[in-house]
Write a structure and sequence with these properties.
Helix content: 55-70%
Order of helices and strands: HHHHHHHHHEHHEEHEHEE
Radius of gyration: 32 Å
Structural class: alpha+beta
Number of strands: 6
Shape: elongated
Number of domains: 2
Oligomer: single chain
Length: 383
Amino acid sequence: MTDRNPADKKCLKERFRLLMSRDKKFVRLAAANSSEINKYNENTLSTLALLGTLLMLMPLIAVPFSNTKRAAVPLYLVTGSLSLFLYLIFKLKSLKKYTMIGIYAFCSVFFAFAIYLSVIHTPHMRATVLLVAFCIVPISFIDRPLRMNALVIFWLIIHTILAFKLKPQYALDDSINSISFAILSCFIGNRMLWTRVRSYEAQRLLTIQKGTDVLTGLNNRRKLFETMAALETTDVTKPSGILMIDIDHFKEFNDRFGHAAGDKCLRQCGEVFASFAADYDIDFYRYGGEEFVAMAYGYDMEQLFYLAENIRTAVENNQIDELDTTVSIGVAYSGNMKVRNYENVIDQADREAYKAKDLGRNKVCLSKYDPDRYVTYHARHVH
């Protein structure tokens, strides 16, 4: 026995470590997909609370025809009222972030209702509604498995204690049935939780992959056109300007040093742009070849010009294998004006980029967007 105890303790510690490691992994996946999970839980709470309210009407309607239902009228009224309260209060936008509290509150109301029916209202009968609660709760929403299992175990213990106290003739049967259903539902619920979260993660990674340029890690052209479609059809924050960035002499660079060097140049430029995206309110997209598009948000005309200048300078200072790399940048400033077609803004930014090249490259040219005409704001010349 003395030889087995240390081994048993070690085994328990290892199982506990694996359990906590699995829980941490779930938390990471859930955090990465929190938006989708929150939507799912919000819909779940709304549906369950509304169903709970409507289902309480059925026994109330049956009251004139059933003495047992008449005795439980206060229970049905309280449960229905609480369900309706949860349904209405969590429709408020300010309380959406507390959806999980609402779900646990509803589940607790459901368990309390089922336990009351089992041990107080019908102590001469075996529990039935409670078994339904054990089946539904672990598969109805998405949260950390440990927390969901703890909820089920808590109410299982409460029911078992009350059953042995208040309905001893059926306590053992109810306990065995409840424990069996609780274990089975937690097992199935946990498996379903992981399946759902992994499905969200796969969808998220696929979305990122579809919208990401493999070489530079920036958004790709497909993502750009999806963004433009959203800008033109939905009420989202609009960019105050669009930049067209063209790497100078890239074709000659490619021909002279090879495609591997060209790819390295694109990657390093992508890293520069990504650093600006992290520090400023600007999104970058690889437009094609050596061309990049950027959408800047919340800048006036002068701020936008100097942001473009900072980008140009950062690329110039970022030498690739001790070789100078420069960009010509065209900027179309749209400000707060309503834009019907953002391809026109990109086209104007592209024309400004050509102006910058005509002026000797490694420059920024900016104009105010106008559907009918261009008004050149400024061109920076670098000697």
